[in-house]
Amino acid sequence: MTVITSVDVTDVRFPTSLSADGSDAMNKDGDYSAAYVHLRTDDPDLAGYGFTFTIGRGNDICALAARDRAQPLVGRDVAEITDDLGGIYRELASDSQLRWLGPEKGVEHLAMAAVMNAVWDLAARRAGKPLWQLLTDMTPEQMADVCDLRYLSDALTRDEVVSMLSELAPTRAARVAELSQTGYPCYTTSAGWLGYSDEKLRRLCQEAVDDGYSHIKLKVGANLEDDVRRCRIAREVIGDDVHLMIDANQVWDVPQAIEWVQALAEFRPLWIEEPTSPDDVLGHAAVRKAVAPIGVASGEHGMNRVLFKQMFQAEALDYCQLDSARLASLNEIIPVFLMAKKYGVPVCPHAGGVGLCELVQHLSVFDYVAVSGSLENRVTEYVDHLHEHFVDACIVRDGAYALPQAPGYSAQMHAESVAEYAYPDGGYWSARV
Amino acid sequence: MTVITSVDVTDVRFPTSLSADGSDAMNKDGDYSAAYVHLRTDDPDLAGYGFTFTIGRGNDICALAARDRAQPLVGRDVAEITDDLGGIYRELASDSQLRWLGPEKGVEHLAMAAVMNAVWDLAARRAGKPLWQLLTDMTPEQMADVCDLRYLSDALTRDEVVSMLSELAPTRAARVAELSQTGYPCYTTSAGWLGYSDEKLRRLCQEAVDDGYSHIKLKVGANLEDDVRRCRIAREVIGDDVHLMIDANQVWDVPQAIEWVQALAEFRPLWIEEPTSPDDVLGHAAVRKAVAPIGVASGEHGMNRVLFKQMFQAEALDYCQLDSARLASLNEIIPVFLMAKKYGVPVCPHAGGVGLCELVQHLSVFDYVAVSGSLENRVTEYVDHLHEHFVDACIVRDGAYALPQAPGYSAQMHAESVAEYAYPDGGYWSARV
C-alpha cells in the first residue's frame, strides 16, 4: 500500500511586474504566482503536483488555505483516494466551517482547486497516463461519479451526463488520433499586453502571424483613444483573415461596456472578453444583446459551476473561458464542459498566468474527444511565458498545443524554480525583499 | 492630529457547537467566531472596532487577510480617514493583486468587511454618535460619496441615490422620534435550531410568543418528516396570528426546493430562506415563481452588491437579508438598501452569529429613517446568544431593538472575552486544544 505522507504548499512568485507582462486595464502590476501543492507519498517515484494561480499579494493566504484543506489527505492510501476521485472531492468540500467562508468562491475555492489539481495529477501519474487520457479512458458512468452536480439539476442531471458522454464514447479514438496529428488550436495573448509600446505591439503581432496563429488578443479598456490606435495597428498587421479579440478585464459598468465596444466595432473583434464584473450574469446578457455580432467571452473569474450554469441559462456568453485553477478541478470543470455542450456554447479555456497553459491543454483535448466532438469556434488561450519552470512544459507548434505525452497533469515545477522563487525566502526574493 | 498607531486582529472563537446553538441542515457544528479588528490610535480614548463573522475553522485565514488589508491605515490621520470614508474604502479595495483572489467575494471580502466595519466604528466614535446617527446626519450628497456604485449603473446611478435620499431627508427626524419610542421590530431564530429536541422547540416557541415576538423562524431541510412534525408543533404553539418562517440554509437544488416547500405549505410559512445556492439568482427566481404566495428570502451569503443587483433585476427575492459582516460595510450596504427600495423589496437583515445583532440594529434604523421610510413587511433577525461579550450589547424589548445610544457601531467586545476566547492561545482554548 502506498500512502500520502505529507503535503507541502509553497508560495511561489515570479517578478512579472518588472516587464509589464500580464498588464491590463485592471491589473497593472501583477507578479504571477502559484500556491503550489506537492503531495508526497512513501513511494519515491510517485507524487502529485497542483496549484492555483494568483498575481502576487495574498498568494500566502491561498497557500495557507490549501495547506489546511489538504490535511485530510495525509496518511491516506493513494489507491483509495485516486480510485474514488468523486469521494475525496466531496470529503474535502464538505467541511461546513470552511464552506461558510465562500461558499465555493474566493480564497477557499482557489485553495480547493490547488489541492484537487494535485490529487488529479497524482491519479494520472499513478495510472501512467497524461491527464487527458486518464479522462478519456473513463466510462461515462465513472465520469458521472466524479462530477459535482450539486445545484445543477435544473440544468444538468446525472442521466444527461451519462447520455451525453455515451453518445461520443464510440468515436473517441478517432479524435485522439486526429489531435495527435494536428494538436489543439490555440491563440496568443502575448502580443497585446496593455503596458507594451506601439512598436512592440506591431512586432509581436507580426511574429504571431508568422508563427501560424489565426487568432490574436489585445487588452483594452484603459483609454479609448489608445484602444482605437492599438486595434488599428493590430488590424493593419494581421490583415482581414486573422481574428482579433479584445479583453477589458472587468473595467466597465454595463452601459459603458456597450458604448466602448461599439466604438471599437470597426475593427471587427471576434469577442469582447470580461466586459464587466465577472459575477454579473444579467449584465453579460445585456452586453451580448447590444454588441452582437461581436461575441461576449467570460469565465477566467467565473467563481464556480453555479455561475456558469446561470451564464448558460441566461444566454450571456458566446464563448466560455473556464479557468483550470479557479474552478475546483475536474470535479467541477467536467460539469461546466457538459453544460456548455448542452447550451451550445464553445469552451475556450483561459490560460496564461503560471502553468495554466500546461493544465488547459489537457482540458481542451478532453473536451474535443469526450464532450464537444467539435473544433468549431474553439481556440484555447496560450501565453508564451514562464514555461521554463515546468518539467513537462506544453509544446505549441503552428498555433496548436501538441498532445501532452507525459503522465500527469503537467503541473510539476522544477525544484530549482520553486526554491529560487519561493516567497519571501527563496533565492530571488531574499535578495530583494 | 490623532493617528492610527496599530491594527490588532484576533481570531476569537466561541464553542457554540457544544450546545447545538446555530445548528442547521448545512451547518451542524459551527463554533461561532469573529475575526476581530481593533484599530488603536494615539488618543487613549479613541479606537475603532469591527469584525467579520465565521463559524470556526478558517477564521485564522480571515484574520490574516484582515491584517494585510488594514496595513495602509497604520500611521494615518484619523480625521483624514474618517472625513472621507468613500476615499479610504476605494483605497483599500483598489489593491489589484488582492482583487484577483475574489474579486469582492470570499475570504478577502470578509476581511474587507471586518476592516471597514472598524473604520466606520472609529468614525462614529470620533463623532460621538451611534453609527445610525452618523449616517442619518449625513446629507444625501455626502452619502452618495461613500457609496460604491461600481458595476451598478444599469440599476442605480449617483443621481438616483441623491434623489431617493433627498425625498426622505426632510422627515428623518420624525422617524427617529418614532423609533426612540417603539424600537425597530425584530424576530427570533433562537427557538428553531435543528439540533434542538421537540420539547425544547415547543418551550422556546412559547417563550418567544410570551416575549412579544410576532415572527418566529425554524430551520428545515434535513429530513422532510421531521420538518412536518416541527412545523406542526410550532404552528400549534404560536397559533395563526404569529408568522412562521422557515430556513433551509442552501441544502436543496432548485427542483427539490420547490417540492419540499410545497410539502410544508400547509403550515403557511411567510418565507422560505436560502432555498438553494446563494449564488443562484435565476434559481431563486424560479423557486419564487413556483412557491408563491410563500415568499423567498436570501442574502446572508449574498457575496457582494453585484449579486444583490441581479437578485433585484431578476425579481428573485421577496425579502433581502443582507449581511453586515459579509458585504464590505456601509460603502456597499447603503447601495444595496437603495436598490432594494427602488425595486420594492423590503430589507430584513441577517443577524445572529457573533455580534451581528449589535451591527444590524444600526442598519435597520438607518434604512427606516433615511431610505425606506416604511416598516411594512420589515423585521430584523435577532438571536439571543453571545451578547454578554459586547460592551454595548443590543437591547431587545417586546420584539423590538431599542435605539442604540452609545457612540460607535456597537462592535466592541469586552477585552476579557477576547482574551478568554482567542484561538488557540486564549484561556478557554489553551486548556482544550
Give the overall shape of chain A, derived from the CA principal axes. Answer: globular
**Fraction of residues in helix of chain A:** 40-55%
Structural class of chain A: alpha/beta
- So what's the oligomer here? homodimer
| CA radius of gyration of chain A | 21 Å
Largest sheet data of chain A: 9 strands, mixed
Shape-level CATH architecture of the domain at 171-416 in chain A = Alpha-Beta Barrel
Task: Name the biggest interface.
Answer: A-B, 61 and 61 residues
The CATH homology group name of the domain at 171-416 in chain A:
Enolase-like C-terminal domain
Number of strands of chain A: 12
**N- to C-terminal distance of chain A:** 44 Å
Number of distinct helices of chain A: 18
Order of helices and strands of chain A: EEEHHHHHHHHHEHEHEHEHEHEHHEEEHH
